[in-house]
Amino acid sequence: MFFLLPIIIIIITITITITIITIIIIIIIIIIIIIIIIIIIIIIIIIIIIIIIIIIITTITGIIITTIITGIIIIITIIIIITIIGISSH
Hints:
This protein is mostly helical. 96% of the residues lie in helices and 0% in strands. It has one helix at 4-89.
């Protein structure tokens, strides 16, 4: 009976180390998955911010361009009206 005790102790230590190793591996895999998820979320947030910035820039430039064009059109029409009034008054 006593000669079985070391074998039992060896089996117990082997199972304990195997369970500890598997727990460590599972923890490492969970940490890696969490890091990957965080990186993906950060990339998505950066892409959304870039899209918002592009939309804001394009709308601002569109507004500026349309105001410039309408201003030029208004100035041209005022010049045309003034010249027509000037010609008709002569």
